[in-house]
Design goal:
Blueprint (H helix, E strand, L loop, with lengths): L1 H12 L1 E6 L1 E4 L5 E3 L2 E9 L4 E16 L5 E13 L5 E4 L4 E3 L5 E2 L3 E3 L7 E4 L4 E9 L2 H4 L6 E10 L2 E12 L3 H14 L22
Antiparallel strand pairs: 1-5, 2-14, 3-4, 4-5, 5-6, 6-12, 7-11, 7-13, 8-9, 8-13, 10-12, 13-14
Length: about 210
């Protein structure tokens, strides 16, 4: 009931305001998701690929509720695709975030545009994205953000359950964000215009030859 209430509160007006800290996956960091570096996995395995999962972090966000109270939470995004013949199911209640001291956090809030949490159903030939928010314990929220954490995620591919642990490390700059900013800087630079009247009049062997 408490989890259901939390999900209702998010839909009714809890908003994520900004974010602090940057985290990237330690392994499988071969993709991007929403402009962030993401870990990518084949579902249920590389040998039997019937879909895929990408996982990225949006840092620590401040959640504002209707009564103006706020709390700090780690924001994760999961994108699941189904390219097989069996449905893929992600239960937001089964996802966990483990802190360095061993404490495991459950998501208090979840949102998805195409599906209603807690069960995210992905039918063959489709994909779904879900945002999860894991509130930090008061003792951590009042001091500093964790330097690292593990995401213990779980999805069901048909009757098969796939569970993996994705470690995240805090970094100063997300490489995916840096690449995007560099591309934007290049596009903003002055362009050089070549005068078509400059250069030889035609293409062929030079008149002076050898």
């Amino acid at each position: 009931m408490r989890k259901q209430l939390a999900l209702i509160l998010f839909a009714a007006g809890v908003a994520a305001c900004g974010s602090t800290s940057t985290y990237i996956p330690e392994e499988q960091a071969t993709a991007t998701l929403g402009g962030r570096t993401a870990a990518a996995y084949s579902l249920p395995s590389n040998q039997n690929k019937q879909g895929g999962l990408r996982l990225a972090s949006y840092g620590v966000s401040e959640l504002k509720q209707n009564d103006d109270e706020s709390l700090k939470a780690i924001h994760l995004r999961m994108a699941v695709s189904d390219s097989g013949t069996q449905p893929v199911t992600l239960d937001t209640r089964e996802q966990r975030l483990q802190l360095p001291d061993g404490r495991q956090l459950a998501p208090a809030y979840a949102t998805s545009k195409a599906s209603a949490p807690p069960l995210i159903q992905v039918t063959p030939g489709s994909s779904r994205t879900v945002d999860l928010f894991f509130p930090l314990p008061p003792d951590i929220a009042e001091e500093s953000n964790p330097g690292q954490f593990d995401v213990i995620w779980r999805v069901d591919v048909g009757n098969q359950t796939v569970t993996q642990v994705t470690p995240f490390d805090q970094v100063s700059v997300d490489p995916a964000v840096a690449r995007q900013e560099l591309a934007e800087d290049i596009m903003d630079e002055d362009a050089y215009i070549i005068d078509p009247a400059w250069g030889p009049a035609g293409i062929g062997a030079p008149a002076w030859g050898w």
